[in-house]
Amino acid sequence: MYLLADGTQANATQKYTLKFSEPATNNSISNPEYFRQKMPIIKLAEMYFILAECAEHENTDPLQYMNKVLTARGLTGLTSYADFRSLMTNEFRKEFLAEGQLFYYFKRTNQEHIPNYSENMVATKNYTFPIPDSEYEFADREPNK
Q1: Is 111 helix (H, G, I), strand (E, B) or coil?
Q2: Half-sphere exposure for 123 (CA within 13 Å, toward CB)
Q3: What is the pLDDT along the chain (145 residues), one digit of tens a residue?
Q4: What's the rounded Cα separation, in Å, for the pair 70 and 45?
Q5: Which residue of 4, 33, 112, 120 shows the fewest CB atoms closer than 10 Å?
């Protein structure tokens, strides 16, 4: 579970996550300045998710990797699953809350529908960005359709 704090000034009605906030006082960290403004590049859970996706693709058991993440969270490991993509999507949503990684997961898996969003992401081409007009002049390209 993540802690949320109220916004300030003009954003007072908004909430923001304290996921990467450093504690006000923590005597166990010898050099707290080292951890200031640090963001993880890749997390151990993400590596296990990649291994689970590879195992599913190769028709081997992906739960051996998923369960490592679940047991590290203090949860009971799974013994079976009905839909692997739904399982992965739910776990990604939990693990990467407020990190900006979920969009890239949806893009990589080409998911048409994102929870709480009504448009079809594939049909509306929301996963691709148009080529800038300046690129056409030098690349001799046809405009995006």
Answers
A1: coil
A2: 6
A3: 556 777 777 777 777 776 666 656 555 656 666 666 666 788 899 999 999 999 999 999 999 999 999 999 899 999 999 999 999 999 998 888 878 888 888 888 888 888 788 888 888 888 888 777 777 777 766 665 5
A4: 9
A5: 33
Tokens of 68: 């490592």
Q: What is the pTM assigned to this prediction?
A: 0.68
* Residue 70, SS3 per DSSP: helix
Contact criterion met (CB below 8 Å) for 51 and 65: yes
Residues 6, 16: Cα–Cα separation, whole Å: 7
DSSP letter string, 18-29: -TTPPPS--TT-
| Rounded-to-5 percentages of helix, strand, coil across the chain | 40, 5, 55
Total number of residues shown for the chain: 145
